[in-house]
């Protein structure tokens, strides 16, 4: 039951992440990748910090702060700068398709580090979900922007950062709390982004934003930043990294649906068939025998 709840939480998080890809695509012409990352995680941290303090969530022990901060800088800083660069080259749906290699990369990283066993059932579920994503977006591949392959290649490489974040996060969450871990990591990433933006003068770009851009930016920070990743670390607390990562395959579906409304990206009937295959794959991976956990998880906070 704990695994199922964790996967459901991760599904909501991944849908919010997909919508954030579409919003990023909408904003990418108005700001550079560093400034967009600061907007997302600066606002996200301003939401996560008071929630963490209000709920009195346990912070990581002092001995873990350096490692948790390093993970946060790598993920909320480095990964999302490359994420924004990738989205600038291609469509939201295709960028999210590359992002959906996360389950495969997480499985490999977790197996190499001895965190999870690579079972046949888990591999089959991820494979079916991945095929569903490819089927959902196949009809749009020929109409991709010129040079889109650069964005997808950058995104695929950057996903390795998220795979290590998923695998290495769990032990730190277990020694503190989901919110405490998220708060320290996101704060470290936002601080580095702010320092770089301030030193290079990029932060001044935000002054040129109109009402529509600020609405999109606030959504990006609150829903695509704070809420999505509060749910993500809560999911990591309840189930294995690969099962959480497997839900990333719904990300392109959410991205494609919202991007159609914001920037006119097309949706086809393949999307419906792909969505069915995605959920079939997630069901296969989730409904098998209980996956081995590294250690019992504390209750979410």
Write up what this structure looks like.
The longest helix has 28 residues, at 211-238. This protein is mostly helical. It has one domain (2-286). It has 12 helices and no strands. It is globular and about 50 Å long. Helix content is 74%, strand content 0%. It has helices spanning 2-27, 33-54, 65-89, 92-99, 102-112, 120-137, 148-174, 178-200, 211-238, 241-246, 251-263, 270-286.
Layout of strands and helices, then pairs:
Elements: H1 2-27, H2 33-54, H3 65-89, H4 92-99, H5 102-112, H6 120-137, H7 148-174, H8 178-200, H9 211-238, H10 241-246, H11 251-263, H12 270-286
Helix pairs in contact: 1-4, 1-9, 1-11, 2-3, 2-8, 2-9, 3-7, 3-8, 4-7, 4-11, 5-7, 6-12, 7-8, 8-9
Question: How much of the residues is beta strand, in percent?
Answer: under 5%
Task: Determine the N-to-C terminus distance.
Answer: 18 Å
Q: What's the number of structural domains? A: 1
- Helix percentage range: over 70%
SS content category:
mainly alpha
* SSE sequence, one letter per element: HHHHHHHHHHHH
List unreliable stretches of 5+ residues: 290-301
Query: Please, what is the average pLDDT?
Result: 81
Supply the key terms.
301 residues, mainly alpha, disordered C terminus
Compact overview of the structure:
74% of the residues lie in helices and 0% in strands.
